[in-house]
Amino acid sequence: MTDPDPTPARDVIFGAQQERIQQRLDRLDTDLGAYIRDFAYDTVYDRPGLDLKSKELIACALLVSLGSPPELRTHIRGAMNAGATEAEVRGALLMCVPYLGFPRTVAAFEVLRQHLGRADAPAP
Amino acid sequence: MTDPDPTPARDVIFGAQQERIQQRLDRLDTDLGAYIRDFAYDTVYDRPGLDLKSKELIACALLVSLGSPPELRTHIRGAMNAGATEAEVRGALLMCVPYLGFPRTVAAFEVLRQHLGRADAPAP
Amino acid sequence: MTDPDPTPARDVIFGAQQERIQQRLDRLDTDLGAYIRDFAYDTVYDRPGLDLKSKELIACALLVSLGSPPELRTHIRGAMNAGATEAEVRGALLMCVPYLGFPRTVAAFEVLRQHLGRADAPAP
Amino acid sequence: MTDPDPTPARDVIFGAQQERIQQRLDRLDTDLGAYIRDFAYDTVYDRPGLDLKSKELIACALLVSLGSPPELRTHIRGAMNAGATEAEVRGALLMCVPYLGFPRTVAAFEVLRQHLGRADAPAP
Amino acid sequence: MTDPDPTPARDVIFGAQQERIQQRLDRLDTDLGAYIRDFAYDTVYDRPGLDLKSKELIACALLVSLGSPPELRTHIRGAMNAGATEAEVRGALLMCVPYLGFPRTVAAFEVLRQHLGRADAPAP
Amino acid sequence: MTDPDPTPARDVIFGAQQERIQQRLDRLDTDLGAYIRDFAYDTVYDRPGLDLKSKELIACALLVSLGSPPELRTHIRGAMNAGATEAEVRGALLMCVPYLGFPRTVAAFEVLRQHLGRADAPAP
Description:
By secondary structure, chain A is an all-alpha fold. Chain A folds into 2 domains: 1-49, no CATH class; 52-124, Up-down Bundle (AhpD-like). Helix content of chain A is 73%, strand content 0%. Chain A has helices at residues 9-14, 18-28, 30-45, 52-66, 69-81, 86-94, 96-100, 102-116. The termini of chain A are far apart. The model of chain A is unreliable at 119-124 (pLDDT under 50). The interface between D and E is small, with 8 and 8 residues.
């Protein structure tokens, strides 16, 4: 029922890119960067009760609803870093079909394709 | 990686209320009712690749994004029927805070409160 | 290609309820009421180029996307006043399924059911 | 009241580009590609009750609400393939002003401009 | 450029209802209640840089975009507690017309009417 | 309570770019261009009751909710043309965090960064 893992979520989600991402956010606005690190990650994400893989699959679905490609790519990678398989990520994105319809879901699979590096399909 | 459970998702999610819910949808529109049963549930939900509990936690988060209280209540119950604990449902709803903000999340916890039957708080 | 009908759209859409609806809007805010009458109806709706029935079917679909039950009911009635059959209204609402998903569409059919006075199904 | 045309909607909407579009979707995800072809097009779109031109004008309006430029361009072309005039497409997009406001509508007219090949205006 | 007022924003916005509102949120979920108090109010709202009246007028507009009537009522009252006149609140809500369209704005003026206690118009 | 300034809002907001922007809108659709000039600006924006700086800060927040980067940039410039400081614009954008969550707000600060010409951060 609880998540005993002491590793901060942002270490897992961002991996080696964490410092670069945090610097980019801090340059946008130092308060915004602090809110994301201290509140979104170190408070909400690090709260026990749900495992990190489930949190990241939920984050992916919510980013499909928002239509936010760059963040979606970050959290597809984050979900996989937290242990999700490609099949599980596909399953999470396909759950958006009955709730959000096809256009947002198609856009999400474009992001997944880019993440997986399958460059054999022309960009839309 | 696959979901070997042969029980249809809608049997688990709706439980004893399945017939009543399907009849209500069919009365709204027979084609709509058929689309929900045959496509949303028997095709998308029953697709292997992700376990049903994860699908329902994702459904809850997407319903928070849509602001759809009646369906959210149905799928909070569905998530618990599929094995989610109250703590996991709370964790899924709290993941909406960084992605959707507070108003939609507060409304979702009102629905959870009603589902749990905790009538000690006044309705908003 | 143009709509030669000189009847103002709001006469057709609102019918005998026009005065009551306009008074309600004016009481909310006199400027808001004037904007809706002079701009939304007498400028945008009365612009030629597309027939009124098509405009109202589009309005219904957009109100499904917004999740606005009272206005949806007004414009389901408006679409029918402009010549749409019940089958055409159902067809317009079902087009929302692939674009918006099921929850908003189900809510729209609840509004249609109320409009059609089919009280044989329990409210959600 | 019914649409007797036996031509599948996707033949009309996509025309010569159908195979290319379906291959792109299948490459994103084979299940997603199948859902769009078998459910969105061959089930929902091919359902009688509303003519295809009206369905496509509604699709355009819903895509304005979603802010999905690539799909909007596809369905502006689809509406015209189904018999809509440029004036009717403009009328459908302008109906978005009172329901969705100006920013989404302006973005939609940018897509229309690109479709019509009027390259005399600078990109935004 | 900065807001020297040491009074916490939530004291002004909620006034005598603060304790009741916080208790309701805490009963929904203790973490959610703490996030709203410590992050939304004591961190974001109490950050200097913009006066509280402007923050609350912005909050009202954002709540119109979300379609959240109960929170909108709270922040209409909050804007007035922070010094906004009724004319300024009306001006803020009318700014939603060009950006969000009429349906959400009409719903917002219904909330304003209820707040102002003008019961001479029938509810929708 | 009223705004005695006789300068049209669009003169302040658009400054030297007004003619170019209006021509671009007129080329998209002459009716759309007229609606924006005559209704959005000369009717809604020029309505007294709220000062122009507040209107533009509200417009910025609403454009964050819509996820419309080009218009957001126009109205960040408009807010500053109407007297808002950079600190006030940052304060308005940060108010979106509790209401809309982080992804839309981060995208908004990207637009602010581009407007301020701070090219020292890599594009996302």
